[in-house]
Amino acid sequence: MVASSTKQKPRKALSDLLHIPTKRLGSWLPYTGVSTVDLTSLATGERMATVAQSAPSVALKDRRDHAGRLRKQLLRMPFAERCARMEAAADFFLNGELPIGVSLPQDSSSALLTEPQLADRLVLAGPDEYCERQSDVMGLTRAMCGAAMQGIADSMINVGRSLGQHLELLGVEGSIEDMEAGRIPRYCAQGIDVGLLSPNNAPGHFRLCTMIPAGGFPIIQKPGRLDVFTGMRFSYALDKAGFPPGVMGVYPAEQSFASQALSACDRLMLFGQTSTVQSVSKDPIKCEYHGSGNTAVIISDDVVDNWRAYLSRIVKSVVAFTSGRSCICAVRVYASRHTREIAAALAKALGKMKFNGLCDDSARIAAMADADAAERMWQMVEQGLSEDGVEHMTAGYGPRLVRKGGLTALEPVVAHTSNPDGAIACMELPFPLVAVVELPQSQVCAMLEKKPALICSVMTERDDFVQTIWDCEGVKFVMQNKATVEVDVADALEGNFWFWTHAIPAVPEPIVHEAPRAYHYV
To answer: Contact 185/519 with Cβ under 8 angstroms?
Structure first.
């Protein structure tokens, strides 16, 4: 636990620099090396922190030395105890003062300090400072960072509900004594750890990561280049709540770290662009991919004439409180008629949403972390909008690429098209961009199988049509008459955790003439 390391509550002096070290698996002590990169403020360009860059060999050594031990320590905790500790960790994560890095004199080299010296210079941060730093680097507003923080904490609190509904049914776990004695559970774990590749701009992805330590597995994380704060805070919250020290290792590193170090983990949870996550591993059994969402809203023929009743849910699906930076935000709306009216109404609702800086609590639009990338994205959008049959519905609401206070943002874009294969209808970018596509209902399933969607929210009163969408091979999750962002992690959005990490053992169970039990061993 980190309690012993934080009793003096040191603060960063104005002349000091915040340094974010590696948090190694199996230890709460920070660790750093020679190579570092800078984190800068989007608005001012000021250097806010340096981040240690981990070598793959460090993570591989830590995995070899500690992953098996941590897995056993987790299994010695009953599932209910792990969930209780996760609830305690949620409180620390949401409200506590936890290490955010170490304080170094501006002219000091972190490589010259020993681990105990680094531990003595730990800098603590409460939730406000955590959100401010994250916002300044990533471009999300303070309020968006706070909302993501709350969502992660809620998932930590509810992890017992999301996992426990399958645990008793499947008899996944028994005691560590049973396993050490060689008795085979009904389902055996397929490894001892989980590697986590996190994205740059979406801290809310940690809602799904809460399942990993609660499920009994240590984590080796490569954080996104910009968001090193979430993983570090989450990890220290676990330590402070009584999980084995260092149950989660946080290794800031170059992108190649993922293919060289994370690929050694027994299971991988990969977030980011599809091309990025598939460059790490193409093993569909070992990996759980969280790439592009291509999330869609479908307005069924039975309610499309009453589309106005569903407009607020569609608007929420596009923007939510992440400024479109989530795979669960809708990028397409399919309907067979009234599509231009729907697009115009969406444009009216979204077009008035403006970028108002990072401190506006009511702001729905975030800044882009890279101004050059924002310009390239806008050029792609302009090219898509220029295609035949495409109408830019937000053209009359001012420029979409805006600059304010040293920050660059892309404000919402709504397009209307009758070509479901056009560039604008297939585009997914990290800002509110949605194409309203005129498409006969009879062709929707074929289109979803051609362009798979993570979530489809179906506006309909016909349960049989909802089942039809469920049956489409290209759809992972279906909702009815809800905003896509209202999906519940407990509903196994990204695949069932137990089935991903466990399998039926090779040794068959004998026939037992008795009532089934939750835990049954050979």
So the answer is: yes
HEC secondary structure over 339-363: HHHHHHHHHHHHHCCCCCCCCCCCC
Reported as a single tens digit per residue, the pLDDT across 313-357 is 999 999 876 776 778 889 999 999 999 999 999 999 998 888 888
Q: How far apart are CA 365 and CA 371, in angstroms?
A: 15
Cα distances from 70 to residues 26, 223, 444, in angstroms, run 7, 21, 47
- What is the C-alpha to C-alpha distance for residues 417 and 435, in angstroms, rounded to an integer? 7
Kindly report the backbone phi and psi dihedral angles of residue 472, in degrees, each rounded to the nearest multiple of 5, phi listed first.
-70, 130
Across the 522 residues of the chain, what is the mean pLDDT of every consecutive 10-residue run? 38 62 82 80 86 90 93 89 94 94 68 66 90 89 89 89 67 54 65 89 83 92 91 94 94 85 87 69 74 88 94 90 78 94 94 85 82 91 92 93 88 93 90 93 91 90 92 87 81 64 60 36 28
Q: In which element (H, E) is residue 402 found?
A: strand 401-404
Token pair belonging to 147: 């909302």
Helix-then-strand count for the chain, H and E: 19, 23
- Number of CB atoms found within 10 A of residue 413's CB: 29
Q: Is 404 helix (H, G, I), strand (E, B) or coil?
A: strand
Cβ atoms 101, 197 nearer than 8 A: no
Q: CB-based contacts of 126: which residues, under 8 Å, 6+ apart? A: 95, 96, 97
Geometric angle at alpha carbon 341, from 335 and 345, rounded to 5°: 105
Indicate left, alpha or beta for 166 from its phi (over 0: left) and psi (-120 to 50: alpha). alpha
In DSSP terms, which residues pair with 233 in a beta bridge? none
Residue carrying structure tokens 């920070």? 30
pLDDT score for 10: 45
Is the pTM for the entire model greater than 0.90? no
